[in-house]
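Justification of resources, computational component.

The compute hours requested in this renewal are based largely on the per-chain cost of generating structure records like the one below. Each record pairs the submitted sequence with a full structure-token output. That output is archived, and it is also reused by downstream analysis tasks.
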Amino acid sequence: MYLDRSPRAQAERTLALVREHLDETQFAWRGGHGDESAFYYRIHSPVLLIEYDNHPGIFLTNPEPARFHVHTIVRAPNGNDYGRDLLAQHYRLHHGSNETG
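The structure output for this chain reads:
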């Protein structure tokens, strides 16, 4: 469901990595189990992070999480796909320093 949004070759590589780390994979659930219940889940391994979250509406009037206001993320925690300082990387590669200003 999540990996099929990637190009086929990339999805196959990622799925192979996920299978290699299946014993290190954790699943967490928070929320209800009813048809209308809001919930959150997280799948986390050394090679994959997936989160699904029902949020309260920021611009809507619902103060509680609702199933029609959903956020999801798919990340690669070992791939440095987040938390990277791109500006410092640019300066290091193209200007020989880590300074950003």
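The chain has a mean pLDDT of 82. The chain is about 25% helix and 25% strand.
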